[in-house]
């Protein structure tokens, strides 16, 4: 759940808006814009600091997609894959251990239901998994590849960035691999250390030709994953693994899609805009409450949802850089490999983000 935040302070007569999203090798981002309010004060009582990551806040039950069922995040992913295999006879799911259900059980039961030719294991070779997926997609089938942990997507980096992302462009739109979706468990869980905690979306956030998506909960996970599968561009879908079981919501049973490249405003506010994705959305929800209660700062919260291409219209809905009165600050993980026993000190928790807001008020 490594993340980052940016803060901007503007003149008192400027309208609120936000800038672009920054990058970091091991980080997902909570991006924040701050406009000073006359009633804001940074003087607060001393607080005892805790190493809690976040408290999950489920979304309201959706009513526009038909009957719902209680699902956690991994079950909502399974439901999306089940819907796809049922409706698309060309769809195949492949990756390390997916045949028996996968490490996180996201494909459990699908091989028994749809057969070994449509849900099957691959060798332990991420480059080969994605390369095979590109070929399947170019041939016209729907390819859903699983990278067992996002930390191990790097051997497939060349296939994603130099092949999948460029396939349509280099052929003059004669060929494409737009039917390829790559799933990967993402972010920290509290004990994953170096190789099971990373958030590598920043590496892909600047690569034209692909789409990058991170959901915040089960309802978004199913709708955004189905949108990725239907999209005619190769997509990377990162799944916050700390939410696989912790996040539980009422999720529609039938297939539905949530539009890609469309951010969602979760909370209106007048002083500060917080922009985050994935698990960090829930951290920022707590930060927004703390800022209101302790500083008198009104926060707007936006879930970016799609990292690339991101929703500039919603986030930059007004002139964002006019009359900036403070330098840009970013709250993020340190420039070190992801630690093990020191994970609580590494992550950009609510206390670090709250402290950054206080510093900007006093700038």
UniProtKB/TrEMBL annotation:
Enzyme class label: oxidoreductase
SMART domains: Transket_pyr (SM00861)
EC number: 1.2.4.4
Cofactor(s) needed by this chain: thiamine diphosphate
Annotated CDD domains: TPP_PYR_E1-PDHc-beta_like
Gene Ontology MF: a single term: branched-chain 2-oxo acid dehydrogenase activity
Pfam families named among the record's database cross-references: Transket_pyr, Transketolase_C
SUPFAM superfamilies: Thiamin diphosphate-binding fold (THDP-binding) (SSF52518), TK C-terminal domain-like (SSF52922)
Gene3D superfamilies associated with the record: 3.40.50.920, 3.40.50.970
Catalytic activity: N(6)-[(R)-lipoyl]-L-lysyl-[protein] + 3-methyl-2-oxobutanoate + H(+) = N(6)-[(R)-S(8)-2-methylpropanoyldihydrolipoyl]-L-lysyl-[protein] + CO2
Alphabetic keyword roster: Oxidoreductase
GO biological process, one term: branched-chain amino acid catabolic process
Residue ranges constituting the Transketolase-like pyrimidine-binding domain according to the UniProt record: 71-246
Domain of life, source organism: Eukaryota
Name recorded for this polypeptide: 3-methyl-2-oxobutanoate dehydrogenase (2-methylpropanoyl-transferring)
């Amino acid at each position: 759940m490594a993340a980052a935040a940016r803060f901007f302070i503007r003149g008192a007569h400027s309208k609120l808006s936000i800038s672009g999203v920054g990058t970091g090798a091991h980080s997902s981002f909570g991006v924040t814009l701050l406009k000073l309010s006359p009633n804001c004060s940074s003087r607060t009582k001393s607080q005892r600091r805790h190493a809690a990551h976040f408290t999950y806040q489920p979304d309201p039950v959706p009513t526009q997609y038909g009957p719902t069922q209680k699902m956690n995040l991994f079950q909502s992913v399974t439901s999306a894959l089940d819907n796809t295999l049922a409706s698309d006879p060309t769809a195949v799911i492949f990756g390390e251990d997916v045949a028996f259900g996968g490490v996180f059980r996201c494909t459990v039961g699908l091989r028994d239901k749809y057969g070994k030719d449509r849900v099957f294991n691959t060798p332990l070779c991420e480059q080969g998994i994605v390369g095979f997926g590109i070929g399947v997609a170019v041939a016209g089938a729907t390819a859903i590849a699983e990278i067992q942990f996002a930390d191990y997507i790097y051997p497939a980096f060349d296939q994603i960035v130099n092949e999948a992302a460029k396939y349509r462009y280099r052929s003059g739109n004669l060929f494409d691999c737009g039917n390829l979706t790559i799933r990967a468990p993402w972010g920290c869980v509290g004990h994953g250390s170096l190789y099971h905690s990373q958030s590598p979306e920043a590496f892909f956030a600047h690569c034209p030709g692909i789409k990058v998506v991170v959901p915040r909960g089960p309802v978004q996970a199913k709708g955004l994953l189905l949108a990725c599968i239907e999209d005619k561009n190769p997509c990377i879908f990162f799944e916050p693994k700390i939410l696989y079981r912790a996040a539980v919501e009422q999720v529609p049973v039938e297939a539905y899609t949530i539009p890609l490249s469309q951010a969602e405003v979760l909370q209106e506010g007048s002083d500060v805009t917080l922009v985050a994705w994935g698990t960090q959305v829930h951290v920022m929800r707590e930060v927004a409450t703390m800022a209101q209660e302790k500083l008198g700062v009104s926060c707007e919260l936006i879930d970016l949802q799609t990292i690339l291409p991101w929703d500039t219209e919603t986030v930059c809905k007004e002139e964002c850089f006019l009359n900036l009165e403070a330098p840009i600050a970013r709250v993020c993980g340190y420039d070190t490999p992801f630690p093990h026993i020191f994970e609580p000190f590494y992550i950009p928790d609510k206390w670090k983000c709250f402290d950054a807001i206080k510093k900007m008020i006093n700038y």
